[in-house]
Structure formats: structure tokens, C-alpha cells
Amino acid sequence: MSISEHIAKGLGEEIRDPLSTINLALDELAADPAIICNETIQSYLEIIKSNCDRVNQLMQNFISSTETKTLNLQRHNILTVIEEAISDVEDLIVGHNIKLTRQFHQSEQKVLLDKPKIKNALVSVIKNAAEAMQSYPKIIHITCTADKGMYEIAIEDNGMGVDPKNKEKIFEPFFTTKKRASGLGLTHAQRVLTTHNGSIKLKQLAQGSLFLIRIPIYHEGTLWF
């Protein structure tokens, strides 16, 4: 177990125990005959309970982002994985009236990866791009090319960009400048890519941001883990 994973699990236990006590107390209070018919108090109790549940889920997401898990590595066409990630965020893209364009280098070469984990990492980066844009037109451009034994996936948006003082913080757990965001999406994406011997880097643009993801290409007879 890594030091970060050990700390996260220890912190999680310290937080979950009082949360469980609070939830039990809320259930008892909600069932009290003196207030069971008081809609105002019941609604406040529900607000408290829902926020306790949110903190608990946030803690679980944090623990998951630090866990070292065995990868289920299989050969996949990276373009298929990217298209599936785009499909998973289609409702978000349509709902925010975002124009998403793609430019892929067609290849039959395979990438050795854990498909669900890489797909979730891509989803996190695309969601981050979608949420970074406040004014229209909103555009996300995704390119995929092969370069020196690596697949490079570039996810570009025309949003506000990242404040230079925050550039070094964006992959830190819980760091976010967005309302009601967990601040764990990019942390998780970076961890997944690192465990695949890949990487993710932020490049500032004149308008917007570009996240460059690099994943090793699988070559027959050569394993890199």
C-alpha cells in the first residue's frame, strides 16, 4: 500500500465513523413523534442527510483515486476507446450546446490498457473541458496521433484557460475552481495514465486549454509493465 493510499484510508475511517453517527442520529430525530409531521424540520433534516451522504461519497472517491489496483491489461484500438468515452459524455455535450470535432490518425495498432480505467480517465478530461467553457461558441477538439511509440490524444477547449498560479495545482486532490465539483477527476485521470506508463500534461493556449495524453503503443513481444 502506498503512503498516499494509507493516509487516504486512515482519513476515510476517521470521517466515516462520525458521519455514520450523524446519520443514525438524523434517522432517530426524523422519527421523533414530536416533529414527524413538521415538514419544515423534516426538510432541513433531509438537507443535512444528503450533505452527509455527499461528503461520504467524496471521501470514497478520494480513496479510490489513491488506490493501487491491478490493471486488467488487454489490447484495444485506442480510437474505439476514445469514441466510447465521447459517447459516454454525449448528453453533457448536447446539453451544453458544445461543438465537438475530432481528427484521428487511423491505425490498426493496438494499445495495451485497462479499457474501463482509460475510458473513465478520458471522460474526466472531456468533462473538465466542457465545464471550463462559459461563453459561446463552445468548442472541444480532440486529435489522436502516433508519435515515437506513443499515442498522443489532445483534448482542446476554447474556454477561459487555467490561471497560471493554478497550473501546478490542477492535478491535486480536491483542487477545483468550479462550483459543486469534487476536484478529483483530473487527479484520477493522472493516476490511471501513470499506472499505464503514460502521462497527461496541460498546455496553455491563447484561448482555452489543451490536455495532452500519451499512452504507449503495444508492440508484439514487448511488454512495458
How does this structure look, described?
- With 225 residues, the protein is of the alpha+beta class.
- It has helices at 3-30, 39-66, 78-88, 90-95, 115-131, 185-195, and strands spanning 74-76, 98-104, 111-113, 138-147, 150-157, 199-204, 209-216.
- The strands form 2 sheets. It has a 5-stranded mixed sheet. It has a two-stranded antiparallel sheet with strand order 1-3.
- A hairpin with a 2-residue loop joins β4 (138-147) and β5.
- α1 packs antiparallel against α2, α3 crosses α5 (115-131) and α5 (115-131) packs antiparallel against α6.
- The two termini are 18 Å apart.
Layout: helices, strands, pairs:
Blueprint: H1 3-30, H2 39-66, E1 74-76, H3 78-88, H4 90-95, E2 98-104, E3 111-113, H5 115-131, E4 138-147, E5 150-157, H6 185-195, E6 199-204, E7 209-216
Parallel strand pairs: 2-4
Antiparallel strand pairs: 1-3, 4-5, 5-7, 6-7
Helix pairs in contact: 1-2, 3-5, 5-6
Q: The biggest beta sheet, please?
A: 5 strands, mixed
> What's the quaternary structure here?
single chain
Instruction: Specify the number of helices.
Output: 6
Shape, per Cα inertia axes: elongated
Which sequence of strands runs across the widest sheet? 2-4-5-7-6
Distance between the termini: 18 Å
Structure described in brief:
This protein is of the alpha+beta class and 225 residues long. Helix content is 45%, strand content 20%.
Tags for this entry?
225 residues; alpha+beta; 5-stranded mixed sheet; two-stranded antiparallel ribbon; 6 helices
